[in-house]
Design brief:
Blueprint (H helix, E strand, L loop, with lengths): L1 H13 L3 H22 L4 E9 L6 H12 L19 H8 L2 H8 L8 H8 L4 H15 E4 L8 E7 L4 H57 L6 H36 L8 H33 L4 H35 L5 E5 L12 H39 L1
Antiparallel strand pairs: 1-3, 1-4, 2-3
Length: 406
């Protein structure tokens, strides 16, 4: 109670310090206003929003692809040849957007040299690699990626920079770089596989024509046009085995090419890097086993055909070559069609709802708030100084009185 009375006793004395408190508040507000208006550069924000799409079921195209698969049961599922590494999970998209590799691509497309921190970096005696690394690190610090949550179901890319136009440009470049990366990841393997299959198809067409011409020339020369049904059955079996063996070799080459491509990619941009390598290695072992089985069966049928008379054997070989080439041409044609169907059914993983636009006003510093808070703090400091002065005057007076009494 005595402390409260002592405090209240100071209040009348503080009235004469009101001008000091007001002046301190004005000085604090004026100084902070000078800083926010003249010294501290404003920070602008831009945001791009993305809608993550659910995986596509394929619809009618998926049924057409399944129909092609059922026609080639001996070859194996066609989907294993066109298995594209696509993932629609939000976590994967967030990981890609936050990756250093994507930031490097964006930093190479935008002009960060207009920013003061980058200009300060350029004045330092740094090597080009170190300077580029620091530029990318600075850019990553200014970019925030927010995954969908209970309040917002979209994926957001937020950029804050001390420039009016640059945040929107950076945010849109991030979205474009993400689209380019995913498009290349999804379509790159399909394009390479399609080129390989088309090349094999062209070579097989030439070989088929040559085999048909050789068979026709032999039939005209020896006036022989047919073999027994048993020999034809052997030829059919052998042609199917050789077609299956070629298909297995093709699948093995595609699997090995995919392994090499995946091992050369940056694991930071491929969150399922380890799982894909494990799956590809399992596919490779299965294809090698399939090749061995087909080779053993083909050698057994070749031994049976080798017991035929010379003229019949030559005719059997020619017919087998035509049958085999026809079968292989059909297999390659169906694989090429399956690749085209799979490429056409590849749906985008996300859709851009709103691209970033140039900000109308800065988000920081909030000038009114800064000036108001600075004024209040300065006034509190003024009150503290006034109390301190009153206490000092009173203490000094009491000490003087005590000295006179002594």
């Amino acid at each position: 109670m005595s402390e409260l009375r002592t405090t209240l006793a100071y209040l009348p004395l503080l009235r004469r310090y009101v001008p000091l408190v007001v002046v301190m508040g004005a000085l604090g507000a004026g100084f902070s206003g000078f800083l926010v208006f003249k010294v501290i550069p404003p920070t602008y924000q831009a945001m791009a929003t993305l809608l993550v799409l659910p995986p596509s079921s394929g619809g009618a195209l998926g049924g057409a692809l399944s129909q092609l698969e059922t026609q080639l049961d001996a070859v194996g599922p066609l989907r294993s040849l066109v298995n594209l590494p696509r993932s629609s999970s939000v976590n994967d998209l967030v990981s890609i957007l936050r990756s250093r590799s994507l930031a490097e691509k964006v930093a190479a497309q935008v002009k960060l040299e207009t920013l003061k921190p980058i200009q300060e970096l350029q004045r330092l005696p740094l090597k080009p690699d170190e300077l580029a690394r620091r530029r990318v690190a600075f850019l990553q610090q200014q970019v925030a990626v927010y995954a969908p949550d209970s309040r917002d179901s979209t994926l957001r890319v937020v950029v804050r920079l001390q420039d009016r136009k640059l945040p929107a440009e950076v945010a849109n470049q991030y979205v474009q770089a993400l689209e380019t990366y995913l498009r290349g990841l999804i379509q790159g393997d399909t394009r390479d596989q399609q080129q390989f299959i088309d090349q094999q198809l062209k070579e097989m067409d030439t070989q088929l024509q040559q085999a048909e011409e050789a068979l026709l020339a032999f039939q005209k020369r020896y006036r022989t046009v047919s073999l027994s049904d048993e020999i034809k059955q052997y030829i059919t079996y052998l042609a199917e085995l050789e077609a299956d063996e070629l298909a297995a070799r093709t699948a093995l080459k595609e699997n090995q090419a995919r392994q090499q491509t995946l091992e050369g990619e940056v694991s930071e941009l491929t969150p399922t890097f380890g799982d894909q390598l494990t799956q590809l290695e399992a596919n490779r072992q299965a294809l090698l086993k399939r090749q061995g089985e087909l080779k053993t069966a083909r050698l057994r049928y070749e031994k049976i055909l080798a017991t035929l008379p010379a003229q019949a054997l030559e005719l059997a070989r020619l017919e087998r070559r035509v049958t085999m080439r026809s079968r292989l041409y059909l297999v390659l044609s169906q694989q090429a069609q399956a690749l085209r169907l799979e490429a056409s059914r590849s749906a985008p993983l996300f859709k851009v709802l709103d691209r970033a636009i140039e900000a109308d006003r800065p988000v920081a510093p909030v000038k009114r708030v800064v000036i108001g808070v600075s004024g209040m703090i300065s006034m509190c400091i003024g009150i503290f100084l006034a109390l301190l002065h009153v206490w000092w005057v009173k203490t000094r007076k009491e000490l003087n009185n005590y000295g006179e009494e002594a």
